[in-house]
Amino acid sequence: MKGKRLNLWGWFWAIAAMLYFFIPMYGTLDFSLRMKKGVISLLAYETVLADPQFLASFRYSAIMGLITVTISVLIFVPTIYWIYLRLPKARPIVEIITILPFIIPVIVYVFGLIRTFSGPPFQLTLTPFKTDILITAGYIVLSMPYMFRAIDVGMRAIDVRTLTEAAQSLGSNSFQILFDVIFPNLRIAILSGALICFATVIGELILGDFLVRPALGPYMVLVGRSRAYEPAALAIISYTLTWICLGLIQFFSRGGSTQQQLTGR
Amino acid sequence: MAFLELSHIQKSFAGAVAVEDFNLSVAQGEFISFLGPSGCGKTTTLRMIAGFELPTSGQIMLSDNDLTYLPPNKRNVGMVFQSYALFPNMTVAENIGYGLKVAGKLKAEINQRVQEMLALIHLEEFGARYPARLSGGQQQRVALARALAFHPQVLLLDEPLSALDAKIRVELRHEIRRIQQQLGITTIYVTHDQEEALSLSDRIVVMSQGKIEQVGTPSEIYNFPSTEFVAKFVGQINLLPVQVIDAKKGVVRLGGQTMRAGQFGHLNGNSIRLAVRPEELNPGFVEGANNLTGKVEAITYLGSIIRISVDVEGYPIHLDVFNERKLKIPATGESYQLTFPIEACWLL
Amino acid sequence: MGFSCWTGYPTFAIRIHKEINPTEVHGSDYSRAMPSHLNMKSSSRQRRSSSAILDWIGLVPFFAFVLAFLILPSLNLFSGAFKDARGNFTLANINFLTDQYVLKAYAVSLEVSVITSLFGGVFGFLVAYAITIGNTPRWMRSILMTFSGLAANFGGVPLAFAFIATLGRTGFITAILKSICYAGASGTQVCPFNPYDHGFNLYSMYGLVLAYMYFQFPLMVLTITPALEGLKKDWREASENLGATSFQYWRDVAFPILWPSILGATMLLFGSAFGAFATAQALTGGSIYLVTILIGQQIRGDVLGNPNEGYALALGMVVVMAITITAYTILQRQTARWLKV
Questions:
Q1: Which end of chain C has the lower number of beta carbons within 10 A, N or C?
Q2: Domain of C30?
Q3: B102 touching C (Cβ < 8 Å)
Q4: Rounded to whole angstroms, how far apart are CA atoms C306 and C183?
Q5: Distance CA A247, CA B100 (A)
Q6: Average pLDDT estimate for A154-171
Q7: With an 8 Å Cβ cutoff, are C241 and B73 in contact?
Q8: Are residues C305 and C193 in the same domain?
Q9: Is there a single domain that holds both residue C154 and residue C303?
Q10: What is the pTM of this model?
Q11: Closest CA to A106 of C307, B55, C73, C57
Q12: What is the interface pTM, i.e. ipTM, of the complex?
């Protein structure tokens, strides 16, 4: 009965939301196309893409992103698998730990991280390489909630215990199980987690800024201070990247749980 | 003028017809069941009476009020939902009293009525409990009380027992009938369970694919089904394809064996079937009745009933006999004689 | 049969097994009858006690990592808040939290967080209502949910740039508003819609609020939509059947069921705004006094001689966030219970 009536208020709020989403985006796009006076041009984009510093920082962030994803997967997948199979009672503890990065604001975490590792006994801020290790660790921690949840959901969906028992009854050893059965079935979950992780690293500002590493975030702040049109172009590029990552996630996990909640700053 | 009258109710959804030309007159205090398989339109019709669907055409009259396009909160009919739909944030008492509360009744009146209702459903001590702490059967009773508390003119029930265990179902349906008779309230009960329909109703409306197949008392529906669908849907039936020998006397032939039918309409057309219920068949031979011989195919043990499947002239006939100890069960492959009275069968 | 039989370390397992439970190895008749190297197939009682240690070993990589890079810094923060420059225990840092600058920072942070969580909460709820119960077409719902997922993740520098490009002095919307002109009384062009003429400044707290709203209301939409979908259609129909109007339904049934979820989600929004740093930094360059900005300055060593005061600030933030998240979790659980009925 309700379905028949046209709900005006519903439409109003939905349209209001669409406007709030689109106007800033459109405004940014428009702004970014006006670098050349009076003409719509891609000059801002060309300038950005031609800037060696942009390429360097993008490359840096991308590589760090990949490293973060790899290490994350290598740590989390076996860990979660282990929890499912052998130690279900560790779950609550591990879950609380993975929620911690949500509770601790990033700036606070960075503060603690720097204070802990910028002096003896664990000094990691002396050389760029060591700082890279620190920043990677930081990235892993920051993306931990999302990565963990993505893999957790994936494991739950494939009923790991039954699959393992079936494989065991057919004679596999644990390595074979992990690589022939578990990982392939978790492909989509791992991919989702990896994409979120990657998007987080690319868009991250605070760690890169305070640890003084040439990441994309600090580069963008630098550009924002001195240039007018390039920041808008950068914003569009950044937005598109995030969109692509999320779009890939949606595409690959079609039919799976679609309620992947994403938060960030 | 009937108390509740549905005239030429039609409902279509996006090209598909859900309910077609539905006509029914319900007397006050009657217990009517809508019986049929899933998708036959029974729930849709019920929801049209409640006001959650609007008919594409037709009219619904309730004691001289035209209900057809009235919003659901103005119709004064009480509905019991399949999922109970108890409000989880309210106690049992608050749930039951809600209809009166929104009508603006005074607290004292509401409390008194709630107590009455709780006594009616034998849950006097449960007023302060929340629905989550009740069993399925208890929730159903509360839903019933809630639907009755605000003095509706009609009670509607949408497969209220389908989510419950078999034993509770039987108990509860007696409860529902008892309460209905005690209050004398006109009731429409939607179900796909024929046992429910047969045991509870004053009249049954058998539906299939949006249309009414037959309206009648339980005994009419069961013993004199007017269409093949009703014959097959309600109870078990044997249908034997026969050749007509004497159309006026209703004599037919199955292979080498002849039978006479107790009822028959105009016998034309090619596919005439002889219909007889399994419980009407008996082992043995009775002079003057219909007698058949065949070979035992299978014995199925159903608890209080034993179903013997006999192959007669290539067609299966099932006969149901009570599982009495004195009964001699035949062996498979044995030759078997069965008999049934002429009045017990009819031609379709 | 547990996983232990099939792990890659059978000899290791037996050795540990025997070392940890020497008595139990001989404890049961069953094991005495069997050769000791086959003990790993003996009674499950033995396996349960010794494999407990083994089980935890598998989690070592994870715990080691987390200990080093999460627990340690957090503990450091916590303990540092109570130490002075020479490492002695003191409560002076906590006192620092009552410094007028700090209180002002907390006040501003709270103000921004409360405003954005309230407005974002209300707006987000209305949008979520629109796409669930409000009978908008399916495609609108998919678009809005997707964009909410996108926007909730879109903060920091790009968001600041986007708002500067839209509402800055030379921004897109500002330019449009400025260009709405008509002929004035004295014959000159009057363009009264320039927001900057009316005191609006993107680089103020209100500009920040506008920017925060961009990820706040989508967060609300994402969080509250499941709860709205959990509102069974039956409840609405049952209440209509009992004679309730739309208003009565919302007052007596829907809102009572939903309010823990709404409140919880609002708290989540509060926490999200309270802990935000990058957007504020990129938009205002640190000129708006938020607690997060203050901490940032502490890290850089810009302000205030005593670094341990930064710890106290950080601790204060964590306390606020912890309370927020706890409240959110408790409230969510309450609604989840009802929606399962």
A1: N
A2: 2-58
A3: yes
A4: 60
A5: 52
A6: 83
A7: yes
A8: no
A9: yes
A10: 0.77
A11: C73
A12: 0.80
